[in-house]
Each structure stands twice: as C-alpha cells, then as structure tokens.
Amino acid sequence: MPIKKIVFIFLLLNIIFLNFTIAQKLSDVDKMVAKYPKNFTTTEKLAERIEKDFNSEEEKARAVFSWIAFNIKYDYNSFLNPQRVQGFSYSSEAEKQRKIKQLNDNLIQKTFNSKKGVCEGFTALYQHLATQVGLKSEVVKGDSKTRLADIGRKTISSNHAWNTVLIGRKWILVDVTWGQGYYDSSKGRMVDDFAPIYFDTDPDYFFAKHYPDSGTFDGDKISKSDFLNGPLIYNSAIVEDYKIKSPDSGILEVKNGDKISVEIKNVSKSDQVFYLNKKNQPVKVQNPKEKRGGLEFQIAVDANVGEYITVFIGNASVVSFKVIRA
C-alpha cells in the first residue's frame, strides 16, 4: 500500500477516535449533571458545583448547557401571549445601561427560579452561568427556520436567540432552547427531548436553521439566500450527519414527468428511504444507488407529489423541499 494512503488512513482513524473520545467525555458530563439537584438556591451555587466537578472549558460549557436543558422548560404559553415590552426612561447613558442590566438580571432570576422561559430567558441564563464559571459567552438574536412554510420565505425576522461561547480560541454555537425539547403540534404541548446536537453544532447545519441579525459569525458572512431558500433539515440529519448534497435549493421548480435527483451523504442501500406523497402516504424510493459515501435516488414528479416533499430515513424525517409547479 502506498505510504500516502497509509498516512491518510492513519489520520482518518485518529480523527474518528478523537471525535468518539470527545463525544464520550461530553456524554459523561451529561450523566453527572443529570444527578444534580433540580433546584439550587442561587446561580452562584450552581456555578460553584460545575467548577468543582469539571476542569476544561468545554466540559463547563456543556455542563451549563445540560443543566439548563434538563431543568428549564419552554414556556409555550408565554410564547403565544408575550408580555408587552417594558419601557423605561433615563437621563444618561450610564443610567440606561444600569436599567438594561437590571432588566436582564430580572429575566435571569425569573427563568432560574420559575424553571421556565422562552429563548430570551434560556440564552440570558446560559450567558450568565457561563460567565460565572469563567467562560466568555454572547447572546445572538436572529431568525429561525422550523416549519415547511419557512422554505422560500421572502423576509428575515428576529424571532429567536441563541449563544456563542469561546472554547480555547474557537467560538462554538449553542442553542440551549432547542436542546431541551420541541413543540409537538399533534399533542399540543412541549415535549422534553434532550438534544445535545445543539451544543457545538456544525455551522453548516446550524446556519441552515438559524440566521443572525448581524448576518455574520466569527467574522464570516452568512448567506441570507441560502437560509431563506435552502431546504428544511431536521434533527436526525444533524445527529446522523446526513449531508444533503442535492438538490442544493429547497425550492424545486418542476412539472409532471420531471425527475428530482436527490443525493444524501452517509446513507446506504440498507437504509429504508422513502418520501411522503400529498396524501401523507409513504413512497419507497426506487433503484437507489450508492455513490461517493452516500445514496443517490430520483423522485418522479406526478399528480401524487404535493406542495412539499419530505424525505425519511427509517422513521425519522431528514429533509423537506418545497415544490413549485412550472
């Protein structure tokens, strides 16, 4: 075997082993934090416990993420019925900043004590605890992409918030609100479902579902067009690293008789792959081909294809596209 190939394989195996080791270490953090009390008298007491139990910046950042995700519930009623924005007067910039800080401190304590909140409370509490354990963290406000109707939206809105936290010299992305669970429309309630994928998320996945108000991350410009017009990806795509290679647009302009070519990385013929027709009936993909570490298949456009196409692998939804008839 050529030396270059041996070196490549060696490096690849080292990367795989390192990623596995890191994932295992963070999983151990989650297990330890899950045994913490649900209630601490103060945020300082919680921070002291985290600093006592963990040494590395990454472990501390993950412990803050895990504790909030395990113990703070999303307040869907407050989301549906938001309080009026609290205004205030001030006579100087210093007074303005003091009052803004007081409002933020009140939000942190309310979220911590009531064990519920919306994204502003989750992110403010995360930043506060991260600071207390010696980390630098920021709150980022922006747009989120969660529904089929978000594919091909024309405008950006500021409807969500998340955090960045500095680990070593790298800013990582954290969405602790999404880490704690999700809203199940069929059940009409929030579902607790710890999602560690929203800690140190791959930016490619993260910005398929988030768009910062600044339009940038760590100095790099984020494509607004890719966010608005890209496909809608689901948690399973991030968990299993199902990279969507094609179509690269979430908007498919087609006519009956066309064939849509789909290519997804890290999928094989042994996986059960299907999509839903307009009656929400599963249609198994025909003649899939393994290609470049993934699976390629075609979806025939006919009268049974509806306004959206959602691809499933096993029982999990992976990606959705919007169909526009030419």
From TrEMBL:
<feature type="domain" description="Transglutaminase-like">
    <location>
        <begin position="111"/>
        <end position="178"/>
    </location>
</feature>
<dbReference type="InterPro" id="IPR002931">
    <property type="entry name" value="Transglutaminase-like"/>
</dbReference>
<dbReference type="InterPro" id="IPR038765">
    <property type="entry name" value="Papain-like_cys_pep_sf"/>
</dbReference>
<dbReference type="Pfam" id="PF01841">
    <property type="entry name" value="Transglut_core"/>
</dbReference>
<protein>
    <submittedName>
        <fullName>Transglutaminase</fullName>
    </submittedName>
</protein>
<dbReference type="InterPro" id="IPR052557">
    <property type="entry name" value="CAP/Cytokinesis_protein"/>
</dbReference>
